[in-house]
Amino acid sequence: MAEAKKYPTPVTNPETAPFWEAAKAGKFLIKRCTACGERHYFPRSICPFCFSDKTEWEEASGEATVYTYSLMRKSPSGPYAIAYVTLKEGPSLQTNIVDCDLEKIKIGQKVKLVWKPTDGAPLPFFTAA
Amino acid sequence: MTIKGKAYIAGIYEHPTRHAPDKSTAQLHAEVAKGAIEDAGLTKADIDGYFCAGDAPGGLWPMVDYLGLKVRHVDSTETGGCSYLIHLGHAAEAIAAGKCSIALVTLAGKPRTGPMPARAAGAEADFEAAYGATTHNAYGMCAMRHMHDYGTTSEQLAWIKVAASHHAQYNPHAMLKEVVTVEDVLNSPMISDPLHRMDCCVVTDGGGAMIVTTPEIAKSLKKPLVRLIGHGEAMKGPRGGKDLDLTYSAGVWSGPRAFEEAGVTPKDIKYASIYDSFTITVLMQLEDLGFCKKGEGGKFVADGNLISGVGKLPFNTDGGGLCSNHPVNRGGMTKILEAVRQLRGEAHPKVQVPNCDLAIAHGTGGLLGVRHAASTCILERV
């Protein structure tokens, strides 16, 4: 059994600290703007769409579908699948598909959130649902 | 206000090296600067504007000092591989505004010799760095979605590499001179699905430079006259994850701006330099620039349509980044240089486009599948 891949510890900053604090409690937060109603990810304090500062944290379901992916076969740390997944709540985000048969990933496939540990807050990944 | 016809490319130089372990990066910048200045028939003392990007060691003031320049206008716009296309547009703006009259733009570096220095992280770092986005897999994700949405095939992508290899065989400096087939591309190892090794560009040391100047000065020099008549620049990213669509690039904005300023359309273009970090880069750019409809790039590039003397749109007749040169992992400069050679009639006779009087040089920078810039230049022989 290969050793678990070591992921970088989030540096965090005052703007994103609530996301990482929630992550430690297993909650996956996105931002929603109460002015225009749009959700976005990664989180900003000012809405990237309407530029309102009325953004709120909202817990997301962790349910998503694969928008696209690429299986990186030439990597010193072994093959891995980078992907964009689209959350049930709307926003798409970059991630890796993990803990499933990477040769069987398909665009449109349902995936769900899994957390991977770091030396600080855990990081969000996705696996076959 | 327009830059149309207000700036000419009077000097060009592409370093012949593809591997330079015995030279410094600053030295390569100086060598390409010297080459372009001499090509123009000027001297270093004539230079009054300098442009460089993230590949220049230390940035502007160390470079200006190292090269021994005395300039009154500088610009270090950094947009990855298309920085130099943007520099050309900005040099034209500066010249049109009288801020400088003879601008030098340089690119050089040594990724083949050793790893490139890391770039400063953006606000997204904590939310993306762990996922291992590289050029290969970021462009792989674009290709994967393009195939899903439009039925584009690996065979169609392979035709882009095949066309580049047909041109590279005539370039004595090309890193890869062997003509390859669609089968060769498909049989090369898969790097990051669906991109094979031969869908990827070369990694080369080296560089290039150009001199941009006023119409009056260009006309006083001896080289054939090549001028910029349209320029566009744009950027695209996931923008909060809303309506993600990786099948188009910022070229959908930079291209129309350049064509509108130039007053021409894609149908008028005789030669196209199109950034070819990967085969998918070319296919998407051709669609985004309007050479064919979105989704029809696969059909457009197939069957040798990009081969000079064979197809309708001769592209990257130096062999491009796929076969000849991709200095510092930044292909924008060499795109301009080959377009100027075509317009001057200085391309290799086997790939020279007859009566080539209108060309496009277009590039992207950054990662097409993540955040990137695009810039389009329309160039005309006078």
TrEMBL record, chain A:
Residues 20-56 form the ChsH2 rubredoxin-like zinc ribbon domain. The keyword Cell cycle does not apply. InterPro entries: ChsH2_C, ChsH2_Znr, NA-bd_OB-fold, Thioester_dehydratase-like. SUPFAM superfamilies: Nucleic acid-binding proteins (SSF50249). Residues 57-116 form the ChsH2 C-terminal OB-fold domain. Keywords: DNA-binding. GO terms for molecular function: DNA binding. It holds the Pfam family zf-ChsH2. This is DNA-binding protein.
TrEMBL record, chain B:
It holds the Pfam family Thiolase_C_1. Residues 242-380 form the Thiolase C-terminal domain. This is Acetyl-CoA acetyltransferase. SUPFAM superfamilies: Thiolase-like. GO terms for molecular function: acetyl-CoA C-acetyltransferase activity. Its EC number is 2.3.1.9. Keywords: Acyltransferase, Transferase. It comes from Bradyrhizobium jicamae. Gene3D superfamilies: 3.40.47.10.
